Every structure is written in structure tokens, then in C-alpha cells.
């Protein structure tokens, strides 16, 4: 440097000897602008100034000053420096000289330096304390914060924010505001800028506001409704209440009471409890406090509790484990007692899906609760069978309907039965036939049948069916009826019986050839006498009778002045036609042997007398046998009536039948004896007497077989029949 300066001086020394131009002007420039006032610079930001001189030869030496301190000396016109805050208000200028001495150097305009300091720090302070966490404030109480910045020139613009909302913009460092609950958790901060654009402003710590609010109101709520009167609750059903408070920070402590007993202490606004009957009429309420002492807590409305006690399953008096048996049209009452409730329960009765209305209710006090005794009356019908009777009990507001139920069975009698006759008539010798006791309603429970009959056996699997034996002619016209019995008829003692019907059995005609009223298969007669033979036929269908070989269709075969040419065997034919059994031949043929003798001489008187005596003996024997038979029947009948027996034993029937068989054999013997002895002298009176006696026995047998001993009417018929028998006995005794 010294060498350079020496060289410079050397050349300067040569200037006089050369053409020299002395510097005469020095102009201070900031860029292309001449500085004529205050020079704006920024602390820490380099600044280049120019010292513009007039033309000079040699080049002028330029010296730069800040304040009194020389900063640069050179022939360079530019001066670059880094302004500091300490340079503020100092003068910056340059002086230039070449040929003149330095003391005569030309000096530029001296510009006062205005050093601008950019704000770089913004600190949030609460009083003298730097805020570094949550900022506690109280709602409604004003708060002053400070935004402490680094040194800045010019003064920084400070902008205050709460949340995203700008609250203040000024150069003041302080910010006073009135916190609101809505400011809670919002962030408060400041930002500062001066020389830099606002977008590059420095920002303070963003402190979260904790706005404390003292609780001032406590409201008792049931759901969304404010409680202002009696509180309705249900025993055993949990209830949740709410203590709605005014805005408070920190959260208020809420204490719940039922009566004088504290039930819950927490910051929770809700209180769930299970009401009991013992809580009835007690007061429920809450109190709340936070920043104030508990003694100054705010208290909600005190509501009196009304505990509703719901109905539970009622009790059915005299309930049966199975179905209750009821009789149709018999009025019935049932009793139901509810559980103790508050208020008194409503009771409804139902029969299936139909409500019953004939109800009488009586309230029964049980402490501070009430039970209800409910009695219902109704008349059961058929349609009620297998339904369920139940009573429901409930109180107002109770959703469920507890009930007690009783299944019922309704029993009713069968309808009057009938015996269908569509299959009538039957055919003799048919098997496997039956008749049925039919009813449009067999009652409930289903009835069984009792048969009033002479023939047939009730079916083992269905008593309403009567299985008939092999069809015989004796069954035709026999009466039969049925009676239906079930639980109802037994309890009520009622008789439900069908009308009697008569069995119809179609059979081949039954024929009898009779001479003078006596059934016979042969007849002996002398020539010249008159003979009338009757062919009597009975049957179903009704037969027609004719003698084969005879031109006239008549039941009588008559001979006037009979002779030996009429001697022989004659056939009687009985026949009938059936509408149902068209392919069956209803034909019966019976023969009689007519013996025609020559006229008898007087030598035969002895034989006639002998025959008459024999005939008389036979008639006497027959009469004795008939008397014995009738006596046996009467004795047995009396014994049976004394013992109350309604059924004649098989032994008695057999005895009677065998006795009658004996009579029949006697008749045959008589006819044979009469023929064999050649007796032609037995009088018509003897024949008639014998026949009538045998007819009486036969009628007794038929009547006896058809007896029924199950009703008083039949007994009277029996008594009458046996009275007739006694009269016949007396008649025969006379004979």
C-alpha cells in the first residue's frame, strides 16, 4: 500500500509538469439518486453509496466518513458499508482532492443516516411473565397482555388475534380484552412487522385461552323437559335425570340428592337411579359449584317423586293346572287379584280375542299401594271350547300387560240322534251288516252310545255302531233305538235318545197249510165230504199265494163232495218281488198230502172210539205240558223281579225253548198218531182246542223273545204278557 501511495505521490508530483485538472465537486449519490436529505439504511443490510466527482486529473482521492470516523480512503468512488444501529443519526459523506492539499478537499453533502431496524422478535407477556402455556382468564373480567418486540426502527405495527379474528392493530404493545366463554380454547397471540411486509411479520407464542366461567344456574331436566312439578317415575325402572347448568369453567361439580341423602357427586350432568317404592314423595334435586365454595352452590328445582308401581302377573283364584271343565250355558264366575300397584291397576278380561265386560272390581289397600280383586261372569258356549280366559292388569303408562290365564274346555250334550235307514231293507242270511247312531253333533266330549235292541252287538271300537248278526226273518220288524251319553248328560242326568226304528229284513215267504185252523202236512177225509185247505203265507215283501195246478188264484183249496180222484199231494206256492233285491227269488213251496178214503161202515166204530180216546189223551198231555211251561216262566219271572234282574238268563231261555220244542214234538206225534191210527173221528172241537193251545205257546215264545227289560214301559209289557199266560194256564186247566 505504501508503495502504491509512493507511486501515486510521484505521479502527482509530475502533474505540474503535465496538463492537470483539480477536482472541484463531490456529489453523494445513493444509486443514481443524489442524496440531499436523510439517508435511509437498514441495520445489518449492506449499503453502497457513490461519491461522484467533477473531472479531475489526476484522479481524486476520495475519503468516506460516517460521523467523524473515516471509513474508506481510495480513488474508488463507491463505498459499501453495513449499517449498525449505532450509526443512526450520524452523517455520512465523502471528500475528494487531487492537486490541492487534503485540507482543501471538496466535501459532498453530509447526509444524516436514518438506520432502520427490522423487528425480529415478538414475545407474548401476561404482566411481566412470558406466556408459554395455557392462559387463564375469567369470563367477563378484562385482561391486558403485552407484545414485547425486539428493537425496531421505525416502531413495529403490532396486530392482536383471538382465534382467527383480528382484535387490534397499532404500534401499542399492550392489548386489553374482556374474555367471553366463546373465547375458550381459542388462541391469543400478536404479530409485529415494520420494514418487512406483513406476510413476513414475526409472531408471538400462541396461547390457548382457558376461560373460567362460574356456574350460576342449575336446571333439573327429565330428558329434554324442564321439571317444574311432580316427577313421575316407575318402581324398578331406571330413570335418568339431567342437571343442566349455565356455562362454567372449570366444569362444575354436581351433587345429586334424593330426600336428604346424597346420591352422586361428580362433574357428570346426568344421574341415573332405580326408583323404589320407599322414594315415593321424596324430593330429588341437584346443586352445582366450581369456582365458588360449595356452600354457595346453585341449587335446582326440588321435585317431589311420584313412584308408579307397575302391575306384575296377577293371580287367578282356583286356577287349575289343566283345562277347567265348563258346561255349556252354565254361568261361571272367575276371580283375578292384581299385584299391589300405584295407582290402582286397570283390569281387563278376555276370552280368546274377545273382551269380557261383566266385571266387578274391588280395591284392596296394601300399605300405600293398592291391589284390585276383579270378578268376571260369563256363560260358556260351544265356540268357547279350548279357548283361554285371561285377565290383564296394568297401570297408566305401562306398556306391557301382565296376565294370568286359564285354559277351558266347554262340554255340551250331543244332538238328538237318529238311526239312518237308507240301507234298509236287509236280506235274510246277509252278514256283516250294521246300523249307526248318527247325530249332527256328538257333543263334547264325544258321546258313546247305548243301544235298546233285541239283536246285535255294539262295535268294540265305536259304540255308536251296532253290528247285526246274520239276518233272519225273526229280526224283521224288531224295534231298535240308541241313546247318546257323555260327561254333560251324566252330570245333568239327561237322556238323549233317538226315535225307534224297525229293522226291515226281506225273507222268503213263510207258509202254513191249515185245515180247520190246524197246521198240517196231511189230511185224511172220506169220500163225499167237503174239504177246505188254507195256504197261509207271511213275509217281507208281502207274498202272493197260489195252488199249483189250480185254475183259480186263491189261498183256499176247496173240494165239494170229494172223491178218490182228489187223493194226492198238492203244492202251495208263495212268492214275492223285492224292489231292492230284484235278482233274489222270494219263493216258498209247501205241500199237503190229501188222503181220500172210501166211506166207512159200522164195523169201524171201535177204531173210531179208540182214536177218539187216543186223541183225548194226547190233548190232555199237551195241556199238561203247556201248564208246566207257563208255570216255570211265571215262577222265574217273579224271582227275577224280586232280585231286580233285568235280563233273563240263557238257562231260562233254553228251558223255555226246550219245553216248547217238546210241545212241537207232541203236536207232530199227535198228527202222526192220528194218521197212523186211521182215526177219522176226532172231533173238530178237539183239533181246534189243540191248535189254539199250541198257538198260545208259540205266541208266548215269540213275545218272550222280544222282551226288553231296560225301561218301565217294557216291564209293564212283560207284566201284561205274563198275565195273559196265567189266563191261558187257567183256561188249559179247565180243559
Could you characterize what this model shows?
- The chain is an alpha+beta fold.
- It has 7 domains: 115 residues, Immunoglobulin-like (Sandwich), CATH 2.60.40; 91 residues, Immunoglobulin-like (Sandwich), CATH 2.60.40.10; 91 residues, Immunoglobulin-like, CATH 2.60.40.10; 97 residues, Immunoglobulin-like; 78 residues, Immunoglobulins (Immunoglobulin-like); 95 residues, Immunoglobulins (Immunoglobulin-like, Sandwich), CATH 2.60.40.10; 132 residues, no CATH class.
- The chain is rod-shaped and about 230 Å long.
Summarize the structure.
The chain folds into 7 domains: 2-116, Immunoglobulin-like; 122-212, Immunoglobulins (Immunoglobulin-like, Sandwich); 218-308, Immunoglobulin-like (Sandwich), CATH 2.60.40.10; 315-411, Sandwich (Immunoglobulin-like); 426-503, Sandwich (Immunoglobulin-like), CATH 2.60.40; 505-599, Immunoglobulin-like; 604-735, no CATH class. It is an alpha+beta fold and 735 residues long.
